[in-house]
Write a structure and sequence with these properties.
alpha+beta, globular, six-stranded mixed beta sheet, Aminopeptidase
Length: about 170
Amino acid sequence: MLLPPSAADDAELVTTLTDLTNAVYAKAEKGLWIGDTDRTDPAEVAGFVRAGEIAVARLDGAVAGSVRIQRLAADLGEFGMLVAAPAVRGTGVGRELVRFAEEHSRAAGCTRMQLELLVPREWTHPSKEFLAGWYGRLGYRVVETATIESAYPNLAPQLATPCDFLVYHRDLAG
């Protein structure tokens, strides 16, 4: 499932992953950003692939979803940019990608897993509420609330509404 670094040279695959990520995030973060802010671009995705940080789920040979996996500290892994193609949403692709990310991080010696969820500060976003519940059912708990201004100051001016990052952790030791 983890793409080899050489897959970064596959322009069609990188474009597919970029387009899928941007389409999913455009819907999941509708109303949070000014205009049509893309979540990522082909250069960033290719860099993540080259670094060995992108895992892909396929169904019948087609990309069904992807996730970025990275190590933040000796004991802490993180997953992000988790997306499932709209046609396969609800089939377990996302859950399987999270499971893979956790197993990959556990095998690398991590005892905790982290994810960040961008949420509006002053109102409730349906997609974010769904994700918060889903992550909770997977065993993730909020350990910190970070302002986007402190966590990602370059992104703050692009927001249409004040937002925070909820930082979730899950114990991988069990």
